[in-house]
Amino acid sequence: MTEAIALTEPEAGNRTRTYEVKTYGCQMNVHDSERLSGLLDDAGYVRADAGDQADIVVFNTCAVRENADNRLYGNLGRLAQVKEQRPDLQIAVGGCMAQKDRDTIVKRAPWVDVVFGTHNMGSLPALLDRARHNKEAQVEILESLDVFPSTLPTTRESTHSGWVSISVGCNNTCTFCIVPALRGKEKDRRPGDILAEVEALAADGITEVTLLGQNVNSYGVEFRDRGAFAKLLRAVGAVEGIERVRFTSPHPAAFSDDVIAAMAETPAVMPQLHMPLQSGSDRILKAMRRSYRTSRFLNILDKVRDAIPHAAITTDIIVGFPGETEEDFQATMDVVSRARFSQAFTFQYSIRPGTPAATMDNQVPKEVVQERFERLVALQDEIAWDENRKLIGTDVNVLVTKTGDAEHGRMTGRAEDNRLVHVRIDPAAQDVRPGDVVSTTVTEAKPYFLIADAAYTIRRTRSGDAWDRSQADSCGATAGPAAGPAGPTSLGMPTIRTRS
Ligand code: SF4
């Protein structure tokens, strides 16, 4: 437990101390970093300007990616030199690497001030205080969740799109994955708390939400409702003001027909599915301890496409899992050919210490993995390009995420099926704000994005208005009533702020 101490003011001399949060890894970590920023804002710190050396540097780490520890210790080494010049600099390490390596971090990098785990992000401000006060490193790692992270203050990075956690942890035991060891068993958030957060986001002008969990479609396992995820999709889709609902990631083993029906029948649920395949070989799926087989995976895709013909389906694939033969790899190539993914995130298997696969004795040589990886990427690029070319001449509604500039001449956003679209800016047209929606026609296709150089119409949205308010706020002008921070934190109703 965090020891109670008199809190010191987060000040350095006469000025407020600044912070920077550096994020590695998945969307879960990106959203966790929004919470870390919210906590630090709430504690009175301010975010450092880009390029300035912050007084507090927080690393939100990932243990999944290759060389995660080399990268972390490399970054910490660079900061050691800064700390020699500026002894009041505080360095905190959180996230999955911290959960995994805990005491090792302060042994290898004794200039680190705070180490905190994935279950106790809320302790960060208190640990920084305590480290300053006691003049010694504070390491606090909990083995299970302290408080559901979504109850913590959150400083959102976007005025149009928001992540919403529905569960944390995972009950599966995939042999390549460190997540269950670091994030624990699945904990589901109550539906009422999730809806309250979505409503609060909508009230702030957010029009797109992505429901987040390691395994979203097993949502409800904790309170024994097998239909909970489908019900949740319908309920979130019915929240006034929410126009786009997405989710990531579902597990093929738990993917049920009621979820497909909810996707097809809820207009706000977007025609898109990201579902990890990992391997197209049933033998390798078994070794990975993934409990579905490729026939089931392809069957789900058929059902989704029957119900939602224009759905874009994306996936994750690991190449070179221990024991993968050329025949196994060919099975993956076959499934990829049949599945016609609009995009695949392909990874070369590499040993992750602490996972069961790390000690399997039939590791595939690096050069073999590399060669297979290149063949897979070439095949998938060809398919994605082919699928994208089919969209030339079709109409798209693009939620603008970057308004671009005269130099590049294009703004960028996401179609309803989540494809990236670059839209030519018409200098004579009204200005478009991030969060507005432009309707246009696809004129060109590339493997990873679409181009729309046609005329467009603009729909000004509440998200665009929220962007205007955030700009007015950052200029110190008076903003409308909905622009200020939301009320105090309460269960499921985080304090929401957005950054411009
Ligand atoms: S489903 Fe498998 S890969 Fe996904 S978080 Fe759980 S254990 Fe990891």
UniProtKB/TrEMBL annotation:
This protein's record includes keyword Disulfide bond: no
Binding site residues for [4Fe-4S] cluster 2: C170, C174, C177
Matching entries from PROSITE patterns are given as: MTTASE_N (PS51449), MTTASE_RADICAL (PS01278), RADICAL_SAM (PS51918), TRAM (PS50926)
Residues covered by the Radical SAM core domain: 156-387
The biased composition feature labelled Low complexity covers 476-489
- Enzyme Commission code: 2.8.4.3
Which class of enzymes does this protein belong to? transferase
- List positions binding [4Fe-4S] cluster 1: C26, C62, C96
Q: Which reaction does it catalyse?
A: N(6)-dimethylallyladenosine(37) in tRNA + (sulfur carrier)-SH + AH2 + 2 S-adenosyl-L-methionine = 2-methylsulfanyl-N(6)-dimethylallyladenosine(37) in tRNA + (sulfur carrier)-H + 5'-deoxyadenosine + L-methionine + A + S-adenosyl-L-homocysteine + 2 H(+)
Q: Which SMART domains match?
A: Elp3
Q: Where is this region: Disordered?
A: 465-500
Query: How is the co-factor bound, per the entry?
Result: Binds 2 [4Fe-4S] clusters. One cluster is coordinated with 3 cysteines and an exchangeable S-adenosyl-L-methionine.
Q: Which UniProt keywords apply?
A: 4Fe-4S, Cytoplasm, Iron, Iron-sulfur, Metal-binding, S-adenosyl-L-methionine, Transferase, tRNA processing
Where is it located? Cytoplasm
Q: Name one GO molecular function term.
A: metal ion binding
Residues in MTTase N-terminal domain copies? 17-133
The Swiss-Prot or TrEMBL record describes its family as follows: Belongs to the methylthiotransferase family. MiaB subfamily.
Quote the subunit structure annotation: Monomer.
NCBIfam families (alphabetical) = miaB-methiolase, MiaB/RimO family radical SAM methylthiotransferase
- According to its UniProt entry, what is the function of this protein? Catalyzes the methylthiolation of N6-(dimethylallyl)adenosine (i(6)A), leading to the formation of 2-methylthio-N6-(dimethylallyl)adenosine (ms(2)i(6)A) at position 37 in tRNAs that read codons beginning with uridine.
- Name of this protein: tRNA-2-methylthio-N(6)-dimethylallyladenosine synthase
Species name? Brevibacterium luteolum
